[in-house]
Amino acid sequence: MKTIVVAEDSPTQALRLKHSLERFDYNCLVARDGMQALAFAKEHKPAAIVTDVLMPGLDGFQLCAAIKKDSTLKHIPVILLTSLTDSRHILQGLESHADFYFTKPCDATRLAEKIEYLLEIGSSETGQQEPESLSVTIFGETYHVASEPQQILNLFIATYENLMQQNEQLKGTERELKQVNGQLAENFEKLLASEDRFKVLVDTIPDIVYWTDAEGIFMFINSAINNLGYEPEELIGKHFSEIILESDVDRVSREKVLPQYLGRSVVGDEPPKLFDERRTGSRKTVGLEVRLISKPGSVASFGFKEGIAVVEVNSSGLYQDKPGKKSDLFIGTVGVIRDISERKRTERELIESNTRFRRAVIDAPYPVMIHAEDGAVIQLSKAWVELSGYTPEETRCIDEWITLTENPDSKDADGKEVSRTNIKSYYEGLFQLKTRTTGHEFVITTKKRDKRIWDFSSAPIGQLPDGRAIVISMAADITDRKQAELEILHAKNAAEANSKAKSDFLASMSHELRTPLNAIIGFSELLKESAVGELNPKQKEYITDIFDSGYHLLELINDVLDLAKVEAGKMELSVAPVIIADLVEQSLFMIREKCGQHGIQLQLDIDKNCRDIQLTVDQTKLKQVLFNLLSNATKFTPDGGNIRVCACLRSPENSSTEHDKEEFLLENSDGYIEIRVEDSGIGIAPEHQEKLFEEFYQVQGGLKNKTAGTGLGLPIARRFIQMHGGRLHVESEGEGKGSQFCIRLPLVVNNCEECIEI
Q1: Which residues are 756's β-sheet partners?
Q2: Per-residue pLDDT tens for 17-38?
Q3: Given phi > 0 = left and psi -120 to 50 = alpha, else beta, which region is 439?
Q4: Which of 38, 344, 545, 586 has the most CB atoms around its CB within 10 Å?
């Protein structure tokens, strides 16, 4: 198999030549330039060399000359391939001793035949003497040709054959042009015949549809041009630049734009978009944005602002078909113009919205991060950077940030960083979210190596243009709050310990104090009643003081224990149905004798509307409340005074005051029982009325007892009433004007968590 060296800098042309020659049983070595071809020739001693003329470095003429000067290679036929047709190039081929040349594109069969021919005559002429040099002058340039007569003959034959081939091609082109012209005339007639149908069709389209000729002159434009204030007839025969803003014409006109691209490649750059597209049928102008101007003085209906509308043009070159061959004859441009003013406004608003959103994220007072599902960090707030200490350049992805902020002290039994594992799992799970997630706490280490606790909340916010899901995460530095919670927990534990200690103390006091007190009270009462013998007056006075003091101390202990139980939430109500009227009447028995001793008139008024009403209450505790109120009334009412106890049913229709309607009735729409204890005693100044219900607060001026009260009766009474869902308050017009203590109990108890029915 004979070897052929093919020198061609175009990979496509080289591959085509290689495949063509291999079909004729040649082994082809492809060289990318003249230097490589010369090296192949010296190494492989090929049967022939086929070389392109125009190559970088060593061109085809220079390669041929180098081959012919080498005594070991000069016998190898060299065939030049060129697109050059100047006669001077033929003489350059003779100067370089080329054996034959073909103009591109060359026929593979003819090339193979010439190679065989040159190989045959080359072997028969080996050893001939060096030919004489000839001088040839053409177009003022002299060429020195030292080729053998056969080489000169071969080159002139090649020139003749190439000229004949080109002549045939020109004749074929002429025939095709005649055929195309005939077809064009026929098509034009058909076009004219269908023009009316076409016009009716395109006039229904809201977009502007146009056709310009090869020079950019409007040949057709539909009635949508009315939106610019023009009639179609006004623009037919005028250049497209009539309706385009002057500054935009230079950007979209073929005549203005294409000269800028002469002599340079646009490979890798976006090709220019033109209003008058002319390149090929498959190359369309898509999405060309230009500004149109409305007709002066007209009322335009496009999205015009100051007579200018932004539109999008989609156009394509219009070509005349050639039967059986590629379309080549440009006859104009067709296109569609669509008003995109609203879209551009929306785009501007979207850009502004994105800018505001980014600004809001950057300036957010909390750490905020926007990140994609592949871990890429898109945006960080200033607060995130300031609190963590790491810049956006240091945290370009989630993994980098986790590595920088992981807490080395948070390790499990295997030594694995717990915080890193948890945070990474948290972030990986975010992209499965459909809604917002909150309350994820992690320990992070700042750049200053401080450990901080961040509470993360995240939510999906859509996708990037490439389809990646994005999530926004916000963190709150809750280190101080967690520290405060820890301190509160410690304080709570300490308070619970103190409460337990107090409960233990009260239990001890209940046993250790009440037992001897009961003995003292019991024995002093026996002595006082002369059960063990008569006492003299002085002894009776002392025994009475002992009894009263002991009883007062027992009351104090009982009140303290009751208050402690209420505050600890350990006081329970033993409730049962009770007729309220009966309970009130029974309570009066406990003070009736004392009132008689001091000449105090005791009056009971029970409305008939509540005489048979039952309430589910703790009878013992309610009696204790009434006894406390009645005892206070007796204590602070002068001899000969009055005490009145009344009970009635209150409802929205018969509430006593506007205050009732606004407060208690709103909470108890079914109504309530009101029990009032009124006295004509010393009264209470307004500034002291609420203080009465504070622990250990006492009103001075008791009239009946020298021994003061405990200051716990009213606070305990109010707590008991509140446990029943009711209220206890005091009313008084001032000092010396008596007092009214009012109990309100709802007919339906809604909030009685401490109740136990019996």
Answers
A1: 574
A2: 888 888 888 999 999 999 999 9
A3: left
A4: 38
Measuring CA to CA, how many Å separate 194 from each of 197, 200, 269, 422? Answer: 5, 10, 40, 73
Q: Which two tokens stand for residue 654?
A: 């018969």
Question: Alpha-carbon distance 246 to 469, whole Å?
Answer: 44
Phi, psi of 96 (to 5 degrees): -90, 5
With 0-12 CB in 10 A as exposed, 13-18 as middle and 19+ as buried, what is 337? buried
- The amino acid that residue 237 corresponds to is G
**Which residues are within 8 A (CB) of 608 and not within 5 positions of it... i.e. 6 or more apart?**
none
How many Cβ atoms sit within 10 Å of the Cβ of residue 678? 19
Q: What are the residues facing 459 on neighbouring strands?
A: 472
Confidence label for 333 from pLDDT (cuts 50, 70 and 90): confident
Q: What is the distance of C-alpha 79 from the center of its chain? A: 68
Question: Which tokens sit at 612?
Answer: 């048979």
Count CB atoms within 10 A of the CB of residue 396: 14
Pairing relation of β-strands 2-7 and 26-31?
parallel
C-alpha 557/C-alpha 549 separation (Å) is: 12
pLDDT digits (tens, 9 = 90+) for 87-103: 566 667 667 788 887 87
C-alpha dist (Å) from residue 264 to 16, 271, 273: 26, 12, 17
Contact partners, residue 575, CB within 8 Å, separation at least 6: 616, 617, 618, 752, 755, 756, 757, 758
Collapsed DSSP state (helix, strand, coil) of residue 620 = helix
Q: What is the DSSP letter of 306?
A: T
In which band, very low, low, confident or very high, does the pLDDT at 48 lie, cut at 50, 70 and 90? very high
Q: Which of 143, 149, 146, 21 is nearest to 81 (CA)?
A: 21
Does an H or E element contain 339, and which? strand 325-339
What integer best gives the mean pLDDT of the chain? 78
Tens of pLDDT, residues 676-718: 999 999 988 888 888 888 877 776 654 544 445 667 888 889 9
What six digits make up the tokens of 747? 């007919």
Give the span between the Cα atoms of 94 and 138, in whole angstroms. Answer: 14
What tens digit of pLDDT does each residue of 276-327 get? 666 555 567 788 888 888 888 765 555 556 678 888 888 888 777 666 555 5
Mean pLDDT (whole number) for 124-153? 52
Centroid of chain to Cα 121: 81
Q: Are 313 and 336 in contact (CB under 8 A)?
A: yes
Cβ(339)–Cβ(309) below 8 Å: yes
Contact at 8 Å (CB) between 384 and 369?
Answer: yes
Decide: 524 and 543 in contact? Cβ < 8 Å.
yes
Beta strands at 469-477 and 601-606: parallel, antiparallel or unpaired: unpaired
DSSP for 651-718 reads: -TTT-SSHHHHHTHHHH-TT-EEEEEEEE-SS---GGGTTGGGSTT---S--SS-SS---S-HHHHHH
Residue type, 593: E
Give how far the C-alpha of residue 530 lies from the chain's centroid of Cα atoms, to the nearest Å.
92
The alpha carbon of 535 is separated from its chain's Cα centroid by a whole number of angstroms, namely 95
Single out the residue of 52, 40, 66, 42 nearest to residue 9, CA to CA: 52
Report the share of the chain in percent with pLDDT over 90. Answer: 15
**Nearest-angstrom CA–CA distance, 205 and 48:** 65
Contacts of 237 (CB under 8 A, 6+ apart): 217, 218
The total number of residues shown for the chain amounts to 758
Say how many CA atoms lie within 13 Å of 219 toward its Cβ: 16
Residue with tokens 């330039």: 33
Token pair of 552, please? 């007062």
Report the candidate in 57, 107, 56 with the shortest Cα–Cα distance to residue 81: 107
d(CA 26, CA 75) in angstroms, rounded, equals: 18
Residue type at position 567? E
**CB-side neighbour CA atoms (13 Å) of 318:** 17
